[in-house]
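not sure who needs this but someone in the group chat was asking about Multiple sugar transport system ATP-binding protein from Paraburkholderia bannensis so here u go. i didnt clean anything up, its just raw.
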Amino acid sequence: MTKLANVAVRNLRIELGANTVIKDLDLDVRAGEFVVLLGPSGCGKSTLLHSIAGLIDVTDGSIEIGGEDMTWADPKDRGVALVFQSYALYPTMNVERNMSFALRINGTPKPEIERRVKRAADMLQLGPLLARKPAQLSGGQRQRVAIGRALVREADVFLFDEPLSNLDAKLRTELRRELKQLHQQLGATMIYVTHDQVEAMTLATRMAVMKGGVIQQFGTPAEVYARPDNLFVATFLGTPPMNLLRGTLAADEGKLWFRGLDLAIDVTHYAFKGAPDLTRPCVLGVRPEDVHARGRGGAQDDRLSGSVTLVEPMGNHRVLWLDYHGVQIASIDQDKAPLASGAPVSIEIDAQHVSLFDEASGERL
């Protein structure tokens, strides 16, 4: 049976040629967690995953799995199972033999092989397909077979390297749901690599956002989305990304204000990490769902006025792109009232859900 194992990465450094791909990285994955490594191409997320699997030698640091030092252990001795982006199925073998191949090579008794294959096939709804060859399967079915091949090993840690990226949007959605249900059934430790923020937000119990071989932020999806640690995380997560407005902080009449582009927002309630510095430029970030645009009628105070530059209907909501003093601001809106391009609007920002960053460092204030 699958055992629960934690993964502890300490001061990990990986150099490939003249390039430092992973830079003194620490990562703690609790037993039974579903941790997602999220970041753009080239950020080092797959390299980190492959080092945990033992496919890449580390330059410095250590990797522990289940409390044991596995830094230099052979991949077969680490108790991990890896699902690649490519299905990598044997075309001449049927589904059952593809799933059981590693077990047969290792001399696992036939009754045990049958038990494990049946269990994995039932979980992944592959029972009716066990006699088929890969050429007779859809892309989604092939990826399920690849996942099943990993499951039959009953590993301590399951590693997924962008397993859904080759599938179309509908199949990705279906398999994403199946993977989450699979984790709930197994309760196993899983580490999953993706560049897709929707996969990360929906699958992860915790997610590590990476850039340049460094983890920028590690936390629950809700924490990372609501309180990004820096400007990179703020703009990498979210569709559309967080709106950014540059300005300064000012104290006035016992309150603290953000001021910029004729905009004044009361940020007295804001939980600063330290004493706010009123001398340094800062950046206010606000998610599109916290920007509200309303059609204007008649003569009104135009201090927070803007105009619609583009309307993107999304079915159950729409994205409004607004021009505010020459800055493009995105607003997610569920109002059904028609708004045409060029229409004047009043803009409201929910001050309770803003983020503030130092302009020079990009770090959260």
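also The chain has two domains: 7-236, 243-358. if thats useful
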